[in-house]
């Protein structure tokens, strides 16, 4: 059983990574004097080169000399019993939970996830 759960965990992580939705923002220079030390994000926040962070809306971002790239760190459930179940996004955990509509304490089986 432990081996099965370990395999399931590896599979779920690889699905999340391989199906992540990403975007790229070209360099919007942050300067210290005449030196470019980073880039501004979409909210106008400065980030230094080679920095990495997680946003409040569940994106994992990094800053390079070319700009900022961000990818979702969650997968969406797309193949489950939608008549019996509902997907609920947990913003704290950055993950969807699929539970029965009538009893949110009972989880539902999901057959496919996409990023």
TrEMBL record:
Residues of the signal peptide: 1-20
Top-level taxon: Eukaryota
Any Gene Ontology CC annotation: extracellular region
Compartments reported by the entry: Secreted
Keywords attached to this entry: Disulfide bond, Secreted, Signal
Primary residence: secreted
Keyword Acetylation: no
Pfam families the record matches: PSP94
Family: Belongs to the beta-microseminoprotein family.
Name of the protein in its database record: Microseminoprotein beta
Organism: Phasianus colchicus (Common pheasant)
Gene (UniProt): LOC116238161
């Amino acid at each position: 059983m432990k081996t099965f759960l370990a395999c399931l965990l590896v599979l779920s992580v690889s699905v999340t990574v391989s199906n992540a939705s990403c975007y790229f923002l070209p360099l919007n220079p942050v300067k210290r004097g005449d030196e470019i030390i980073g880039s501004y994000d979409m909210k106008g926040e400065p980030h230094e080169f080679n920095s990495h962070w997680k946003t409040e809306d569940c994106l994992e971002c990094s800053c390079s000399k070319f700009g900022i790239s961000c990818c979702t760190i969650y997968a969406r459930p797309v193949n489950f019993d939608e008549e019996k179940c509902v997907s609920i996004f947990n913003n704290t955990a950055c993950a969807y939970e699929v539970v029965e509509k009538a009893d949110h304490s009972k989880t539902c089986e999901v057959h496919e996830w996409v990023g």
